[in-house]
Design the sequence.
């Protein structure tokens, strides 16, 4: 099972995390709202030595089985760490000809993702536990002096032990939440047969030892060179530190960020779109894609990190879907297999993604079935009122509603939250003009807005 995480690594990562309480606390709890001259949002801290190692690893194609693909190949820094091309899925493997099964998410704003848990919907937001990205590990902590400045958004979450009425899965990395942190996540693409395609962990270990032995022993001590598990966990740590410290992974420079900070004015269409996005009887988008600053000045994540089954249409452009018996059921697999994947109420559920930089994405949803934000928004409001516009029909003309989920799991599909609570023939919650306004708002979420330049342009 090359796609499964080596669980023996987890305790090591957790243990190593204990060695840097100071750094962890400092990172999580200091939104830079304190600087006098600037508001602290524009500083680029220098990368610590561990993060610099992570940066080298991130861009190094020699770490892939075929020598041609690095993390940056799919997570392109020029497009907010998402693919710049418009393929539904990306090709990987030894000869870059093996199709993946899911759309590549952006790596921006992943650091505030909480660990995977299943808890009560309401209490989950309240209690406090540090985000996994802030309990990072490493013997090289002396070097991790560079504080992360800016509006970090470590969100709190409780692990549920008591059974609650409404248990909602939340958090974790990937569309199915199958690993808990950026540290743990790093090995997976390296050994995935349709990503970087190394034969196994030992191959990755040998490559790291050869290519980075000197760097790694300088940071983590010589002993690590003879300890495969430790080495893998520390390079996961280095890759994670890079994603935490490098400012371009979480710049908070969208027009909407400037708007929230009182430094940009939305156009009429954008402002109408925001209102519809928030309105519980219209878009109701903000009920899952949280868009308000928190009381302590943290910027919104545009996700609540919770899992939902939306029932997106099947995408024939994914080669695996050629097999009619094949389904991607999110938490229930094919890539996740643990106690949660065996529970039928989790089947069809995918993690709510951040909508930050969504205007720069080429394909939408876990299966990349949509290519425009208009089509995504139309899906939400017409899925149940006009399913014939959303799903294909069979030979007899019958609409194949929810065609990407086996019948026994369709009961998991959300028909309670607006705008997905309407019935066949009802008026959709948004008309075409309103959809256009919501899309105008979504486009304000792209980083790289310049209030001086773009603001003047807009005023003209
Ligand atoms: C062949 C393309 C490809 C390469 C190369 C690749 N990834 Fe990914 N990455 C993906 C896909 C596809 C997903 C989503 C997979 C899923 O949800 O099952 C993903 C998901 C992730 C996530 C989780 C993001 C989220 O939204 O939860 C992280 C973090 C990540 N990759 C980091 C990396 C790192 C670090 C590397 C290099 C070691 C890397 N990736 C290499 C395609 C790639
Ligand atoms: C009940 C929670 C919920 C509500 C309400 C909701 N979303 Fe989502 N959103 C999700 C989930 C879950 C996904 C991922 C679904 C998947 O991939 O199968 C998603 C995905 C998206 C995506 C694709 C992002 C990407 O990177 O692929 C967009 C765009 C989006 N939502 C916009 C909206 C808009 C606009 C609204 C309001 C009209 C809205 N959402 C309402 C939960 C929600």
Sequence:
């Amino acid at each position: 099972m090359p796609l499964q995480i080596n669980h023996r690594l987890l305790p090591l990562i957790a243990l190593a995390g204990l060695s840097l309480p100071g750094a962890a606390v400092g990172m999580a709890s200091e939104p830079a709202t304190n600087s006098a001259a600037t508001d602290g949002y524009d500083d680029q801290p220098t990368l610590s030595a561990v993060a610099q190692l992570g940066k080298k690893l991130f861009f190094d194609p020699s770490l892939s089985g075929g020598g041609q693909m690095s993390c940056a190949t799919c997570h392109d820094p020029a497009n907010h760490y998402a693919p710049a091309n418009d393929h539904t899925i990306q090709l990987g493997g030894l000869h870059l000809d093996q199709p993946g099964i899911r759309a590549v998410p952006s790596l921006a704003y992943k650091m505030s993702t909480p660990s995977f848990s299943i808890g009560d919907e309401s209490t989950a937001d309240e209690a406090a536990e540090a985000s996994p990205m802030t309990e990072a590990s490493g013997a090289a902590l002396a070097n991790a002096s560079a504080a992360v400045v800016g509006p970090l958004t470590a969100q709190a979450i409780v692990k549920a032990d008591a059974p609650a009425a409404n248990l909602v899965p939340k958090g974790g990395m990937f569309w199915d939440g199958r690993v808990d942190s950026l540290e743990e996540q790093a090995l997976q693409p390296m050994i995935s047969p349709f990503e970087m395609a190394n034969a196994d962990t030992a191959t990755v270990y040998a490559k790291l030892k050869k290519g980075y032995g000197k760097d790694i022993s300088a940071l983590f001590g010589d002993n690590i060179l003879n300890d495969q598990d430790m080495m893998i966990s520390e390079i996961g740590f280095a890759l994670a530190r890079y994603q935490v410290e490098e400012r371009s992974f979480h710049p908070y420079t969208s027009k909407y960020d400037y708007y929230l900070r009182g430094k940009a004015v939305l156009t009429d269409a954008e402002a109408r779109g925001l209102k519809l996005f928030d309105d519980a009887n219209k878009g109701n988008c903000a009920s899952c894609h949280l868009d308000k600053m928190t009381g302590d000045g943290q910027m919104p994540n545009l996700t609540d990190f919770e899992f939902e089954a939306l029932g997106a249409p099947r995408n024939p452009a994914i080669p695996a879907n050629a097999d009619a018996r094949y389904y991607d059921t999110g938490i229930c697999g094919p890539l996740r297999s643990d106690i949660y994947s065996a529970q039928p109420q989790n089947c069809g559920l995918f993690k709510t993604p951040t909508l930050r930089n969504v205007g720069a994405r080429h394909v939408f949803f876990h299966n990349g079935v949509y290519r425009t934000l208009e089509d995504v928004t139309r899906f939400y409001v017409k899925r149940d009122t006009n399913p014939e516009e959303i799903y294909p029909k069979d030979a007899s003309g019958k609409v194949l509603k929810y065609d990407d989920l086996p019948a026994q799991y369709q009961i998991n599909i959300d028909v309670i939250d607006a705008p997905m609570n309407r019935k066949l023939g009802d008026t959709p919650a948004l008309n075409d003009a309103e959809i256009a306004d919501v899309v105008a708002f979504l486009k304000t979420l792209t980083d790289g807005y310049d209030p001086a330049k773009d603001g003047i342009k807009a005023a003209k």
